[in-house]
Amino acid sequence: MTAEDEVRFRSVLDDVAAYKPGKPPERTDGRPSFKLSSNENPYPPLPGVLAAATEAAGNMNRYPDMGALPLLEALSERFDVPVTDLAIGTGSVAVLYHLLQAACGEGDEVVYAWRSFEAYPIAVQLTGATSVQVPLTEDARHDLKAMEAAITDRTKVVMVCTPNNPTGPVVHRDELVAFLDAVPRNVLVVLDEAYREFVRDTETPDCTEMYRDRPNVVVLRTFSKAYGLAGFRIGYAIGHAPVIAAIRKCALPFGVSEIAQAAAVASLRAEKELLDRVEALVVERTRVVGELRAAGWDVPETHANFVWMPLGDETLAFAEAVQAEGVSVRPFPGEGARVTIGEREANDLFLTIACAWRQ
Ligand SMILES: *Cc1c(COP(=O)(O)O)cnc(C)c1O
Fold it and tell me: How far is CA 357 from CA 181, 321, 349, in A?
């Protein structure tokens, strides 16, 4: 077969790295193992949420409600926004893909902090646009001044991840307002708040308030983390109607299943119980960070359900050492490892290994 006979794909695909999912833990000796590599919620589904999903599964011969009206109405009430300001997708990552597809192509630039969420470079590259990555500050925070300076005539989208995955810090209200005021009105600003429910810092804005008088701001939220629906794939955007209409044009028809929609509606009804679980994880986070710091680890402030271990060249050796004890974490070779806050037993096991590492 000659090169001429090969099927052809867009050349932008040549440089796209495949998304690396967090590894499952491997154990063969029968002792318990824990997955702290994908920022999942360790709690099993609430009975009411499971019942709603099970009931919806009875309709699997039908296409889902494409308008997702019960869910949009529930979200509309929850955030006091019109239904026309809401779009859903199979996870907020899917919503981001649709948004980028709607906003940019070859020759355009997308500005975001780095290191940040791994899906960003892939999603940008697939559109043909160019990523402009602005290094985080020494303390692993967004450098909004430098991001502002990185905006050019070619910039179509700027993405802000708060709390930042994988490092943990948030962007504060005053710096975000100054940033939004400085960004040209025709540049779309995506505020990715996948971990908003875990934030306990009072200077952190609720970005669903920030979008109201700013037509170029769109907020991404998800049911995957705080609400524990990662396996069902459901997330949403809150933005002004023209932005939402553009997202909807790019979305796959019938993408979000009836089961996921039903589980999301039931989760909003059970929000208090779910947020109690989030609070328990926040308590665990405080404990884990405190113990790591007491053992000499210089971990950045975190407002998400994970903690960043700045390991540098030791990253892979550390990941292998914890894996050997049945705990999987997410290594970024040469930089550090992201470790999800899980159930207490998992955190204890992780802490034992991490604290011994510093001895
Ligand atoms: C987990 C995550 C999301 C959302 O993921 P979905 O499961 O696709 O909703 C979005 N942004 C960041 C930064 C995340 O870590």
Answer: 45, 9, 13
Which ligand 1 atom minimizes the distance to the CA of 95? 8
State if residue 192 touches ligand 1 by the CB under 6 angstroms criterion: yes
pLDDT for residue 316:
96
Is the minimum distance from the CB of 228 to ligand 1 under 6 angstroms? no
Q: If you take atom 10 of ligand 1, which residue's CA is the nearest one?
A: 194
Cα-to-centroid distance, 161 and ligand 1 (Å): 10
273 — phi, psi (to 5°)? Answer: -60, -40
Q: How many other CB atoms are found less than 10 A from the CB of residue 148?
A: 17
CB distance 222 to ligand 1 below 6 Å: yes
User: pLDDT by residue (tens digit) across 201-219?
Assistant: 999 999 999 999 999 999 9
CA distance 234 to 94: 9
- pLDDT category of residue 1 using cuts at 50, 70 and 90: low
Contacts 24+ apart (CB under 8 A), 18-25: 19/118, 19/119, 19/122, 20/118, 22/328, 22/330, 22/340, 23/323, 23/328, 23/330, 24/328, 25/323, 25/326, 25/327, 25/328
Contact 222, 91 (CB under 8 A): yes
As a whole number of angstroms, the distance between CA 100 and CA 123 comes to: 7
The first and second tokens of residue 289, run together, are 């960070």
Q: Which atom of ligand 1 is nearest to the CA of 39?
A: 1
CA dist 257 → 32, 61, 65 (Å): 33, 11, 8
Q: With b meaning 16 or more CB within 10 Å and e meaning fewer, what string describes 216-226?
A: bbbbbbbbbbb
pLDDT one-digit tens code per residue, 52-106: 999 999 999 999 987 899 999 999 999 999 999 999 999 999 999 999 999 999 9
CB distance 117 to ligand 1 below 6 Å: yes
Ligand 1 atom 14: residue of nearest CA:
194
